[in-house]
Amino acid sequence: MTARIGVVTFPGTLDDQDALRAARLAGAEPVSLWHRDKDLKQVDAVVLAGGFSYGDYLRAGAISRFSPVMETIIEQAKAGMPVLGICNGFQILTEAHLLPGAMLRNNHLHFICRDQKLRVENAETAWTSDYTEGQEIEVPLKNMDGRYVADEHTLDELEAEGRVAFRYLDVNPNGSLRDIAGITNAAGNVVGLMPHPEHAVEPLIGTGRTDGLGFFTSILKKLVNA
Amino acid sequence: MTLDTVTHATETPDVEQPWRELGLKQDEYARIREILGRRPTGAELAMYSVMWSEHCSYKSSKVHLKQFGEKAPENDAMLVGIGENAGVVDVGQGYAVTFKVESHNHPSYIEPYQGAATGVGGIVRDILAMGARPVAVVDPLRFGAADHPDTKRVLPGVVAGIGGYGNCLGLPNIGGEVVFDSCYQGNPLVNAGCIGVMKHEDIHLAKASGPGNKVILYGARTGGDGIGGVSVLASETFDDTKPTKRPAVQVGDPFQEKLLIECTLEIFKEKLVAGIQDLGGAGLSCATSELASAGSGGMRVDLDKVHLRDATLSPEEILMSESQERMCAIVEPQHVDRFLEICEKWDVIAVVIGEVTDGERLEIFWHGEQIVDVPPRTVAHEGPVYHRPYARPEWQDALQADDAGKLPRPRNGEELKDQVLKVVSSPNQASKAWITDQYDRFVQGNTVLAQPEDAGMIRIDEESNLGVAMATDGNGRYAKLDPYTGAQLALAEAYRNVAASGAKPLAISDCLNFGSPEDPAVMWQFAEATRGLADGCLALGTPVTGGNVSLYNQTGDVAIHPTPVVAVLGVIDDVNRRTPIAFAEEGQLLYLLGDTKEEFGGSAWSEAIHQHLGGLPPAVDLDREKLLGEILISASRDGMIDAAHDLSDGGLVQAVVESCLRGGNGARLVVPEGLDAFTFLFSESAGRAVVAVPRSEELRFTDMCGARGLPATRIGVVDGDTIEVQGEFSLSLEELRTAHEATIPALLA
Predict the structure, then answer these.
(1) CATH number of this structure's domain B6-61+204-380, picked from the four choices 1.10.645.10, 3.20.20.60, 3.40.50.300, 3.90.650.10
(2) Which has the closest alpha carbon to A126: A49, A208, A225?
């Protein structure tokens, strides 16, 4: 028995195929979800993949957040369904208020694509349990609007509650406050990050490392053992 | 104002028409009148003027480009040749690959961001129109001097435009080049290439056949952008009250293009189109006349059906508009509903604008009144052809006599070391990561190799691991010294780069960037370069599948260096066998393959140290290139080498520095017998590569080279964290990395 992991395609989503592939390589059953469709096809977890949904027009993630599929996802996420937002998916999660804070344009004002070192700060979320706390991983990062910001109070709260899930190591590539690369909600079922674990799941492709596969094996174990 | 209908044109033969302002010559205008047996309507004049322009008709270059067909090597892989939107080659396992390189030079100088962005958009639609899913892009770029203030305006805009469009489109950018030379100061070259993959049975062609089939325009609304010169029709002749200046450069919307791609691929999947064409240069004029011309000839279009962004556009402007992200499909009536349904699913606007007729005329109507009635072949395929005069420039001899071999050379190890640092940190040889890191190279999850590797490589089948590789190269300095040899060197380098990655070179596309064809010296360069390229392709067995010519890249009397850019496409059966450039394993042995001679004409050394351009470029031996390629591919397939890097500009030392930095390891080098250290490090002799051989494979590898007659010289070992040339100097990787990586950000960031 395996778990069904859904990946949403919004107009302008780019990394949906990669996320589906990563779910498959981890041993899950990948399921495509369509933005206009409220039906989640009985998936056990959802990935909001990277890309430029609606061209990032208005503000990254701001339009997708109102799509029919998001109505169901927001509702189910609040009820505990695991949701992972990668890059544009993370932006959508903050726009949907499932995660606090927001993403601004990179501080250097350029798109940046690089192999990025991260430290796993919280290995107890639904998506990170296959890592160990403090583990260093390397996955690709590629974004234009990746600078994580939140007010001081929120940042302090995130730190205090262990909700900073990932931090940038060596280089802070976009000016994110407190080097935050990814965060989780209090329940640990909703996780968002700017780097792209789905691009680091095969030894030959991308960075040549498989450090990102742990996201997908984490969720699979959780769902199958549940 | 009155609509200039066909009837009106017949009744008013003596009306003055702005053919000169539209760029037509008097005899060309006379020929249009002769073809039609009357004066053209404004709409017809607009169509002819733009389709007979140099850009669309290849009127100056055609007579030379013919050689690519005449001298084409026998090649079973070729499925679709020159003349379609892009050529198609067979890569095995039922897959076909289509690829092409195009220029967007002039728009990118005027408006760097949009010029470069729409260059990417245009080439991607060309590939899509063949029936293929676009899988990667590459961008060969050339700018003025790196430290010139205008380069700081043009380059960041171009790079942001390529990134802004390509990243949002979701296509990995896997290769290309960035070259600086003051000859490109007012004429940057922004070339864009794209690779697409499909199954053999999915190949689509741009033709309209089958009377009764519907013509569907879909994608973005048509606006006033990119009308350029044709606006004289609207602003000066027909209506003085409208704004006269419309943007001549098109504005891109990559989000719309992404939807167009996915929508079109779904339409292909359901086999709903009989013919398809993208709208690029010359917009609807080009698409309708080319589709009709390549089909049975007849088409009727109701231009007022076109969805507009600007309701005030005149019919002439609608015909000429180069608004981006539009496609034109020929669809059998029973498929129209499903076609429109798929467009709706992807939020893509689509409208039936006409149908294929059984006549032989392209007829266009505006609210019921006929404004175009032409034989489409005369517009699309039977434009003027010029045999422009050409002559070897009188300065060519003096340039070639100015031998770079006579330049002062470093006198000792210390000077050699200084010059190594100067060369690897010079703008042309320095790391371009600051630029390429603004492009997404990971999206789609199939990127096996990307810049700064020798070639970009994409997996196209996850089960079998079949992959394709592409490299683009061109060296304007070499071509200036000798255009025939320069074109062959560009071909040889791209071929070598693909082979060094482990892929077998199959076919090429080219982008020929030159000055004004009205200058006999430029025309001679063009004639020589095309002859060299055609001869070279015949010798290497790699046919030209298509390409693009960009002329008039000059400011006043000063032309750019002749710059033929060649893209070589290769195939690799198993991407696991690809060869990277990185020296990743300490202890591996370094072998130099090929012969090193004293060849410094046009070299990176002569430029970086002496700001010199003279003499002859390196000699070309295409049989040797072929042999070297075969050895590199065999060695990769059989696991005899772990790294390979082609030698080109900057010579051996440039390659070793790049491979060491990439792998994070140093190297100890020994100057081989019979060579001096300077020639060893800086010569740019062609037909060479450096490879890293695991010790366990050394004998097998050298035996293979020996048996096949390829010189292979052991020159050192991967070791430590310095690059040491025995008896000469030693440089730490850290110092080299700083020198190599700091230059471009310091100039441009």
Answers:
(1) 3.90.650.10
(2) A225
